[in-house]
């Protein structure tokens, strides 16, 4: 089969690889219908995260079950499924608490599972899924989704689940005012998640006209282009002299975290999902003085997918709009370039 | 009148001071029935917090209204009242959000109010209370509480409200497992608050037999004397191999914050009320990886007093047990010594 490998910074190749096979009774093999490139895939691409050897890459996919191991009874051949961005067992205490990203038997795509077997990356034609029954979510009544539905289902694998996690972590709810820091795919999904959870005032912080327009389409009521103190002043003015009840931090840099903290009212909530880089921090004394709640981190997509899926299937949310580009799998190198150069918000890959 | 002043590290004096008088129409003058010494009063006493001049001290008191300004209609002469550890207006956006410690017109005891008038410290015979109607909470049906009730009412001024804030910030609720780091008056109140909120398993971390015994009396189901990794291992063992759902940090040091963080399960909640000192921090990456929620800071005692007061008056909670010593106001210097030397958990002062 054909699959995407990263050899080093800027070096993405689509290659012939062995077709996956069932290794354990709990496995399934899924033929990938759509995958995509994530902002976090750009870290090794940009050399920010070192690679010791050429690696399979990609962690977001939807597809069709092709085969299952002997222990898999809840999934059948032909089921259309969504894969969260990590797999999980569903049984250990963290999974039982809904924190599947802390699963004691976790495995990542493009890595090895706890039994030492290779797990394919998502940006390829097929993937072996360990702990398949606990990991995969079947899309009921759907076997061949159209392009728009496929795109929305694919966002549940990561970006929409992550935007939702930011909103939940920031205690977004009816009547709360919301600021979203970050206009990438996750930030845009955060806007949509905030609207879905009932926020009536949603301020998207964006300096890019196309992304700001998409934010408005997804539910933003206001756009603030300014950053730093000026940005905070704009938020305060828009909200009638006060700061936001809930702020979603969807970038992860020192600057974005400061922007988020300083946009949150005393006693408000900050949900952060941007992977902390470049000295991002939360000064404890600031939290103490402001009574701001902080929560976030990696989203347990597996936990969130069922409720979000209902709304996608009902047509009440359309997170697939964050894909502004679709390419064939063979074009993966160009997909990475387009995202690296910010010519694309998010690229969907069709194997 | 007689009132307590701090002149410098270790130098507490009870002196003659002017009796307070109404300065603004919203003021009340309260004759203090009981005050007490707070752990935070020990900072200037120990020289940790510098003093530029001799200052009035004390921020926790209950007492009887002696006179009111022309605008005060909800309080009358003779009312027995509880004063939160700061005053607040009740009208500004933070107050409306229940975050009275972020009041835009806040004043502290022993400081000056926004009009520039001196506000007496609580460890004295009488105090002028600015913004009296919004600040003070009347104890209904009580004019001369007995010693036990007086002690419990006095804890609502700060320590019980603060312990409750830690528990609320840590999302304590029915069925949640709880660890309390810190066995001072606030930690002990945190134990009681956790029990009141329905926690069934409450682990108090304490190395002092008397405090541990009191923690058990207040609702702790287990006591862990070990600290560091050993303490975490003990918590994990007591909870059947997992960490706590909710952890209350009631100290504020680097060590106690680490103890608290490392005792919290993935996706659990840490409520912190210990004033951060000595390099206490929350590493953002740790939060990201663990999905731990963090909230806390200064408690908005004014917001919490009404609900806690109901339970004190009903006799279902007895937070006054944290006072293990009662002294006359004139003994304030000895009260500070006893707390500084940890001979007393908390000293109640009777003017």
Automatic annotation (TrEMBL), chains A, B:
Keywords: Metal-binding, Oxidoreductase, Zinc. SUPFAM superfamilies: GroES-like, NAD(P)-binding Rossmann-fold domains. Residues 185-310 form the Alcohol dehydrogenase-like C-terminal domain. Its cofactor is Zn(2+). Residues 25-140 form the Alcohol dehydrogenase-like N-terminal domain. Pfam families: ADH_N, ADH_zinc_N. The keyword Glycoprotein does not apply. Coiled coil: none annotated. It comes from the Bacteria. The keyword S-adenosyl-L-methionine does not apply. Belongs to the zinc-containing alcohol dehydrogenase family. PANTHER family: DEHYDROGENASE, ZINC-CONTAINING, PUTATIVE (AFU_ORTHOLOGUE AFUA_2G02810)-RELATED, ZINC-TYPE ALCOHOL DEHYDROGENASE-LIKE. This is Zinc-dependent alcohol dehydrogenase family protein. It comes from Arthrobacter silviterrae.
């Amino acid at each position: 089969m054909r699959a995407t490998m990263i050899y080093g910074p800027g070096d993405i190749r689509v290659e012939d690889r062995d077709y996956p096979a069932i290794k354990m009774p709990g496995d399934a093999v899924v033929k990938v219908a759509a995958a995509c490139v994530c902002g976090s895939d750009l870290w090794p691409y940009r050399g920010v995260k070192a690679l010791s050897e050429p690696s399979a890459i990609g962690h977001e996919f939807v597809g069709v079950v092709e085969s299952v191991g002997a222990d898999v009874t809840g999934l059948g051949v032909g089921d259309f499924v969504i894969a969260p961005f990590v797999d999980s067992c569903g049984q250990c205490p963290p999974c039982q608490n809904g924190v599947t990203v802390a699963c004691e038997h976790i495995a990542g795509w493009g890595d090895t599972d706890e039994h030492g077997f290779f797990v394919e990356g998502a940006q390829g034609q097929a993937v072996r899924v360990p702990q398949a029954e606990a990991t995969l979510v079947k899309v009921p009544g759907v076997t061949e989704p159209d392009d728009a539905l496929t795109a929305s289902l694919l966002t549940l694998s990561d970006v929409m689940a992550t935007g939702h996690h930011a909103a939940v972590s920031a205690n977004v709810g009816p009547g709360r005012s919301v600021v979203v820091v970050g206009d990438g795919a996750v930030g845009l999904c955060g806007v949509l998640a905030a609207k879905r959870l009932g926020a009536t005032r949603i301020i998207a912080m964006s300096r890019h006209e196309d992304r700001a327009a998409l934010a408005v389409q997804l539910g933003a009521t206001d756009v603030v282009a300014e950053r730093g103190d000026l940005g905070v002043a704009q938020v305060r003015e828009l909200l009638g002299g006060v700061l936001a009840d809930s702020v979603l931090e969807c970038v992860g840099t020192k600057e974005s975290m400061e922007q988020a903290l300083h946009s949150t009212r005393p006693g408000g909530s900050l949900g952060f999902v941007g992977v902390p880089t470049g000295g991002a921090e939360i000064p404890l004394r600031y939290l103490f003085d402001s009574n701001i709640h902080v929560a976030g981190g990696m989203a347990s997509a597996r936990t969130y997918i069922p409720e979000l899926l209902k709304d996608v299937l009902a047509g009440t949310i359309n997170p697939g709009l964050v894909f502004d580009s679709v390419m064939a799998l063979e074009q993966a190198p160009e997909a990475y370039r387009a995202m690296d150069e910010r010519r694309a918000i998010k690229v969907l890959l069709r194997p």
